[in-house]
Amino acid sequence: SAYSKLMDDKFLQCLYQDSSANATQPEFVFTQQDTSYSPILQSTIINLRFSTPTTPKPLAIITPLTYSHVQSTVICSKSFGYRIRIRSGGHDYAGLSYTSYDQSPFVVLDLKELRKITIQSGKKTAWVESGAMVGELYYWVSQESQNLGFPAGICPTVGIGGQLSGGGFGALVRKYGLAADNVVDAKIVDVNGRILDRELMGEDLFWAIRGGGGASFGIVVAWKVNLVDVPEKVAVFSLSKTLDQGASDLFDKWQYKGHKLSEDLFIRVIIQPTSDGAGNRTIQVIFNSMFLGSVDQLMETMADSFPELGLQEKDCSEMSWIESVLYFSIYPKGSSIDVLRDRQPEPRSYFNGKSDYVKEPIPEEALEEIWKWCLEEDNPILIMEPHGGRMDEIEETTTPYPHRKGYLYNIQYFEKWDNETIEASEKHISWMRRIYKNMTPYVSKNPRAAYVNYRDLDLGTNDVDNTSYLGAMKWGSSYFNENFKRLAMVKGAVDPDNFFYYEQSIPPLISSE
Ligand code: FDA
């Protein structure tokens, strides 16, 4: 309509006004009239559930080229009454970085152009902008030195911005903790459009952005991280067992050992239905591992600590740490590490996920039932990632991520599908709700812990007309346990009017004193 065209024009004028004198100003705002709008919007939507004709779409997509563009986006959006959705890598499980469900007009601030990585290898630090993918950081760190790495997630296409905001764990988690645990400085654009580094933002806000979930406090444009030592060669293996091959017993043993092994050894477990030689559906348990050392040392460590797995030298390979990143990724075997630098996108699909944490090994008798629930569904996958090691040494309150000592492993329930119908989605989503409910006796309770980076709106959402701290406790304490209150107080101090509101943003708690 004419009115919305007028608003578009005024909003554009506001955004471009800093640079209006410069006619060669490159475009960084795309409204629904622009032909690039749709391709840019789609570019990092990897969950097709949030890319349908009825998914609410932004009025405009802004792809800032400089920090000042981020600042003017905050100032202009505030004065026009638009909400901002912040997107780095677009992997949010609920699509909250590019859609919004509360009917208010919104713009997407897509940081894909802000992706500079500067490495100070002598100091073992790097500055990385939020729009880089974790795989790019891994790549450039490895180009600087074969002996340096960074402990973030296994999937290389995830954005730095979202992942570091929510924690970030992968194959180095037992040795070095979360990605967020290794952040030493950051630059954030706050609700007033100021750029603040650690010193200017103060320790409370700096604490909150390292795991308190993205998008509640401002736009983090860059992070300074500590790089970590990795040996020239690491050893990897992926050993698969079906039920007939003793998978249940081995999984049971892993539950007692996975979190207690040497910090150099990370063995995660992937559980999924498969078909056996005779064409029957059965359960396959894959032990998927990285060891910071040689195959010989790995064999020794396994003989001492997990002989039951029966690992043999022929099951293992030695490679550089950066090659191990590819080994764990979805890229085809034999791909060059350049795929990381080239920002190869994640394949798109419809998917759903949920998370749990286990504090006491699941009783062996219960496993059969869990396998049965998995066999009832088409293509589910349960990924269990051990904690322990460094994770036990970090206090629950050091960063907002509270699942530390005493948490044996994380479970992620995940399912992908490619049928676009609503019925297909509903079937898969309701299966996952069922297994999540059935798992209640076997997982952490009071609160039942969840991982904010595997965002789950079933845990609860804010109410747009009345966002309350108590209302948000349900999901807030699952993600952050006792840290939720401090997060809400930081929010109350830095964004009391709740400009950075979204379905699972931290509500502001304003102290009455
Ligand atoms: P996206 O851009 O969607 O942002 C996620 C959230 O953070 C949104 O709320 C967004 O607004 C906010 N945000 C983004 N950038 C921000 C910024 N610069 N400042 C403030 N807020 C910002 N996790 C893990 O720990 N280990 C793993 O191995 C994996 N693997 C994995 C595989 C796949 C296929 C998926 C889909 C996801 C994972 N994850 C994961 C989960 C992942 O860490 C999580 O989804 C991250 O939040 C995604 O970050 P992106 O920047 O890609 O997402």
From TrEMBL:
Spell out the protein name for this chain. Uncharacterized protein
Q: Which organism is it from?
A: Arctium lappa
